[in-house]
Amino acid sequence: MLNDNIYSIRETREQLSRLVELAYLTGGQFLVTKFGQPRAAIVPVPKDWLIKPKSILDFEGFLGKGGETGTELVNRIRRNKREKAYVVRLRKR
């Protein structure tokens, strides 16, 4: 590892975003030191660790086969809230 890739904690704090981006884009590795002693390393994430973005279609039927849709779930929650408020008003009479 070259001396160009060694950063103190203070330098790392000031340039963390840039170092992370460089590690990702170029595969560079950076050593973080505290009082000249190695403490951590910034290394790129292996490609097989990266999560594939999901399509909106992946969430279709998220409550199981034949289950309610997201819209039906929201409507049921809202209805329950209205019904609870209605019962509270009835009890106050």
CATH architecture of the largest domain: 3-Layer(aba) Sandwich
What's the helical proportion of residues?
A: 40-55%
Please tell me what the overall shape is: elongated
CATH superfamily of the largest domain: YefM-like domain
Question: What is the CATH C-level name of the largest domain?
Answer: Alpha Beta
Summarize the helix and strand pattern as letters: EHEEH
Strand count, sense and barrel status of the largest sheet are: 3 strands, mixed
Radius of gyration: 26 Å
Whole-number count of domains: 2
Which sequence of strands runs across the widest sheet?
Answer: 1-2-3
Distance between the termini: 78 Å
CATH fold annotation of the largest domain: YefM-like fold
**How many helical stretches?**
2
- The beta-strand count equals 3
Q: Which structural category do the helix and sheet elements fall into?
A: alpha+beta
Topology:
Layout: E1 6-8, H1 9-26, E2 30-34, E3 37-42, H2 70-92
Parallel strand pairs: 1-2
Antiparallel strand pairs: 2-3
Walkthrough of the structure:
The chain is an alpha+beta fold and 93 residues long. The chain has helices spanning 9-26, 70-92; strands at residues 6-8, 30-34, 37-42. Helix content is 44%, strand content 15%. The protein is elongated and about 75 Å long. This is Antitoxin. InterPro entries: YefM-like_sf (IPR036165).
